[in-house]
Amino acid sequence: MSTPAHSARTLSLAPARRQFLRWLAIGAAMPLASACGGSEASAKSFPIAYSEAEWRRRLTPAQFAVLREEDTERPGSSPLNHEKRKGTFLCAGCTNELFASATKFDSGTGWPSFWKPLPGAVGSSTDYALGYPRTEVHCADCGGHLGHVFDDGPAPTGKRYCMNGVAMTFRPS
Ligand SMILES: [Zn+2]
């Protein structure tokens, strides 16, 4: 009994090895998109798209670092933390209307915080920049990184859109 079982296993090794080599070949031929980092947002295409050089020309270095490189501003550094007038918060990259002042609240985090974006204004993806999953929030029109959204916000949504003030501008109404 042991001899047929042994030979069957020996026979099956060859195809398995061929399969393995085929997988290696496929892996080598595929672009390393998934391995090279970068969020889903930066891989997608958006209605407003500029070259990196053009973004650098249009944005301040601080805006570029947040919007295009997913940097996070120092908490408490944005004047928009204290913006309490009626109006609209716009994307600093493309002037897309992101948040109404009525949805802004004081989260005490040092970052401008909102409980709801304007309809269709933002998109989201999961990032692992800190080693655990967070929901990254970006402008739906230009893909610029804005901040993150968390589930510890106030009623009625329970969401906390934690935004980088430098990624936005404010238009009083
Ligand atoms: Zn934008």
CATH topology of the largest domain, which one? Metal Binding Protein, Guanine Nucleotide Exchange Factor, Chain A
Largest sheet: 6 strands, antiparallel
Ligand inventory:
zinc ion
CATH superfamily of the largest domain: Peptide methionine sulfoxide reductase
Structure description:
By secondary structure, the protein is of the alpha+beta class. The protein has 2 domains: 30 residues; 133 residues, Peptide methionine sulfoxide reductase (Metal Binding Protein, Guanine Nucleotide Exchange Factor, Chain A, Beta Complex), CATH 2.170.150.20. 27% of the residues lie in helices and 23% in strands. The strands form 2 sheets. It has a 6-stranded antiparallel β-sheet, with no helix packed on it. It is globular, with a radius of gyration of 23 Å. The relative contact order is 0.18. It binds zinc ion. The site of zinc ion (ZN) has 8 residues, from loops.
Provide the fold topology.
Elements: H1 2-29, H2 40-43, H3 52-58, H4 61-67, E1 87-91, E2 97-100, E3 104-105, E4 113-114, E5 122-127, E6 134-139, E7 145-150, E8 160-163, E9 168-172
Bound molecules: zinc ion.
Zinc ion (ZN) binds next to loops.
Compact summary:
The chain is of the alpha+beta class and 173 residues long.
Short descriptors:
Metal Binding Protein, Guanine Nucleotide Exchange Factor, Chain A, three-stranded antiparallel beta sheet, 173 residues, binds zinc ion, disordered N terminus, alpha+beta
